[in-house]
Amino acid sequence: MRAYDVILKKRNGLPNSHEELKFLIEGYVKGEVPDYQVSAWLMAVYFNHLTPEERFDMTRIMLESGDQISLSEVNGIKVDKHSTGGVGDKVTLVVGPIVAAAGLTMAKLSGRGLGHTGGTIDKLESIPGFRTALKKEEFFKIANEVGLVVAGQTATVAPADKKLYALRDVTATVDEISLIASSIMSKKLAIHSDVIVLDVKVGTGAFMKSIEEATELARAMIDIGKRYGRKIGAVVSDMNQPLGKMVGNALEVKEAVETLKGNGPEDLDRLCRLISARLIELARGVSSEEAEKMVKDVLESGEALEKFRSFVIAQGGDGSVVDSPESVLPAAKGTMEVLSSKDGYISYIDAEQVGISSMILGAGRAKKEDAIDYAVGIEVFKKLGDRVLKGDPIARLYFNDEEKAEKAKELFLEAYKISDAPIEPPSLVHEIF
């Protein structure tokens, strides 16, 4: 077999067989197929796309290139959720305790933040003592004892995807839906959960900018998951503005705790309840109404909040973060308010730019090697459709470096547009699968 023939076939719009894809991808990982030939194939895929069978084959090949984590030693029904990334997205910190309190087990691998999107691991590590580097035996032990464990992703999971993604990044082929779907699912399926719910973000702060693209991506990932024998669902949720009010690691942990106490922002609370209920519905085979009631019960009884405490303690963190997050979590030295320049209505928010403003403060990474400042971030006061008067505070920046704060403030102001006429805010949820 020659790489040339595999490329030619895809360039001509024909599907590649499993053997051809395996030859190309494994050859590239081993250094036997040069990057310029794989680049040519990626560009052919960009224009001709992958069939559902090719997507599944590619996912399986990348998945099998590295370690897989069997959860056979973990009790109960194992569930997982995945977000395609957004601004202020602390959903895992709320959903995990809810589903664990409802009797399911979430044994999850999560990533760190890069660019404008925050990572679950960074948020959790803002809790003093919290450990995300766990040995396999410890991971299983916490899963069985608490029903919730979150560890950092390892380089040994789907290494072929990591190498291919780096090539996609420099060849302008990242934003092709079948490649995105295969990439995400190769990592998600490497840990053997019974049930998966995907939170596919759409809007100015998301990778997918249109509802049509986000829906297509959700369907592609569901198809791969079902072919792999998993129970899988998805939610297409809005990211045309930050989720909740807080953007930044310790700030988001505090907001997650408040949400578990019943005091969270309406949008965050609603999305977390929906995703939790969808996981319970798929795992238990109950109606959506029954699942929603189970979510309501564990929140109102305080069981979900106590599950969060147990989870934090089991992974070495300070459990009193549940009682008084302000005294436990790192705090920024200074704050700065961002004021409205005119009267009107918030008509547009570039959520990605809000995320970048937070990154400039130190809450995110421009490069993988960058250090995180857990204390800094942004509190958003005004969202889409809100009325503002000139001089009203739109947001508050939490900073440890005043020079960075001034840059972040300037960028944040550019992210907001104020119009004279009121607008209808977008729906929080666009599709449920």
Automatic annotation (TrEMBL):
<dbReference type="InterPro" id="IPR017872">
    <property type="entry name" value="Pyrmidine_PPase_CS"/>
</dbReference>
<feature type="domain" description="Pyrimidine nucleoside phosphorylase C-terminal">
    <location>
        <begin position="345"/>
        <end position="419"/>
    </location>
</feature>
<dbReference type="InterPro" id="IPR017459">
    <property type="entry name" value="Glycosyl_Trfase_fam3_N_dom"/>
</dbReference>
<dbReference type="InterPro" id="IPR000312">
    <property type="entry name" value="Glycosyl_Trfase_fam3"/>
</dbReference>
<keyword id="KW-0808">Transferase</keyword>
<dbReference type="GO" id="GO:0006206">
    <property type="term" value="P:pyrimidine nucleobase metabolic process"/>
</dbReference>
<protein>
    <submittedName>
        <fullName>Pyrimidine-nucleoside phosphorylase</fullName>
        <ecNumber>2.4.2.2</ecNumber>
    </submittedName>
</protein>
<dbReference type="GO" id="GO:0006213">
    <property type="term" value="P:pyrimidine nucleoside metabolic process"/>
</dbReference>
<dbReference type="Pfam" id="PF00591">
    <property type="entry name" value="Glycos_transf_3"/>
</dbReference>
<dbReference type="Pfam" id="PF02885">
    <property type="entry name" value="Glycos_trans_3N"/>
</dbReference>
<keyword id="KW-0328">Glycosyltransferase</keyword>
<dbReference type="InterPro" id="IPR000053">
    <property type="entry name" value="Thymidine/pyrmidine_PPase"/>
</dbReference>
<comment type="subunit">
    <text>Homodimer.</text>
</comment>
<dbReference type="InterPro" id="IPR018090">
    <property type="entry name" value="Pyrmidine_PPas_bac/euk"/>
</dbReference>
<dbReference type="InterPro" id="IPR036566">
    <property type="entry name" value="PYNP-like_C_sf"/>
</dbReference>
<dbReference type="InterPro" id="IPR036320">
    <property type="entry name" value="Glycosyl_Trfase_fam3_N_dom_sf"/>
</dbReference>
<dbReference type="InterPro" id="IPR035902">
    <property type="entry name" value="Nuc_phospho_transferase"/>
</dbReference>
<dbReference type="GO" id="GO:0004645">
    <property type="term" value="F:1,4-alpha-oligoglucan phosphorylase activity"/>
</dbReference>
<dbReference type="InterPro" id="IPR013102">
    <property type="entry name" value="PYNP_C"/>
</dbReference>
<dbReference type="GO" id="GO:0009032">
    <property type="term" value="F:thymidine phosphorylase activity"/>
</dbReference>
<comment type="similarity">
    <text>Belongs to the thymidine/pyrimidine-nucleoside phosphorylase family.</text>
</comment>
<dbReference type="GO" id="GO:0005829">
    <property type="term" value="C:cytosol"/>
</dbReference>
<dbReference type="Pfam" id="PF07831">
    <property type="entry name" value="PYNP_C"/>
</dbReference>
